[in-house]
Amino acid sequence: MLFDEGNLVLKRTIVAVGLVAAGIAAVPAPAYAASAAYTPERVCGSGFHRVKDGHRAMKTRDGAVFGHVYLMYSKSSGENCVAAIKTRFTGTRTLTGASLEVRGGGRSEDVQKYQFYAETGHVDGSWKCVKYEGWTRTPDNRVEAWGGRKSWGNCQG
């Protein structure tokens, strides 16, 4: 007999017990769990939703992803908001920023050493084109991850 189901179950049980004994479990690290609690909807506030073509990964030159940047819009207020949410170095204060520019309108930028995210605040952008970006750096300030859109878009309100 080539396959013994009883031995397979026993082997899975032994592996699972070994992982638990080694302290390896499928439980997220506290910093990741805390950053996962931050969604762009929560960061920008009630009534804001993700817009088409409004999400980019914040990547380093080597392609490592340090977080995500989201362009958000509130139909009721006609305002935009940008949230740059870290997925690397969460819980550690690193230079993190978010920027939003409205064609023919306002501009907002938020750059500080944040633990979890940066957010631009709300800028009127109804029926106007916008550019957005987000970035974060390593704790030693040597590597930056950037994401966003440098061209005008989302012009329909």
Structure description:
This protein is α+β, with helices and mostly antiparallel strands and 157 residues long. It has a single domain, classed as Immunoglobulin-like, CATH 2.60.40. Helix content is 18%, strand content 44%. It has helices at residues 5-21, 30-36, 40-44; strands spanning 49-59, 65-74, 79-86, 94-102, 107-114, 117-119, 123-124, 130-137, 144-153. The strands form two sheets. Strands 1, 2, 3, 6 and 7 form a five-stranded antiparallel beta sheet that branches. Strand 8 (130-137) and strand 9 form a beta hairpin.
Report the sheet with the most strands, covering strand number, pairing sense and barrel closure: 5 strands, antiparallel
Q: SS-based structural class? A: alpha+beta
Strand-residue proportion: 35-45%
What level of helicity do the residues show?
10-25%
Shape: globular
SS element count, helices: 3
CATH architecture type: Sandwich
Q: What is the radius of gyration?
A: 21 Å
Order of helices and strands: HHHEEEEEEEEE
CATH topology: Immunoglobulin-like
Q: Total domains, how many?
A: 1
